[in-house]
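Entries read sequence, tokenised fold; example below:

***
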Amino acid sequence: MSLTGGNRNDVTQLLPSLDKVPAVAGLVGRPTPDMLFADRGYDHDKYRRLLWQRGIRPVIAERGGQHGTGLGTFRWVVERTISWLHGFRRLRIRWERRDDIHEAFLGLATCLITHRHVQHLC
């Protein structure tokens, strides 16, 4: 992921975020996701076309359409994870001026969240 200012539109970071998906160990070539789920904010023909060119099927809610399209079950996972990250006060509001320090705190929070879930499995 790339770290941007809070006043940037999310859709502008769609393709750079896809470019930063790491390769999966043991697989030949660069893996790409089969489909991409997104909310109404990503409903633009330009981005749908660019996703199709990359071989990714866009599953994007349409603007003006009725709510309850079924994307909520997938979006809930993302919203829940953001909520967990906001449980760490240093990440709720970005106080650090340096990107590397903020990303280090983000990595620490991710490790702690993962550790807590692994403890529940054992």
The beta strands are 35-38, 57-60.
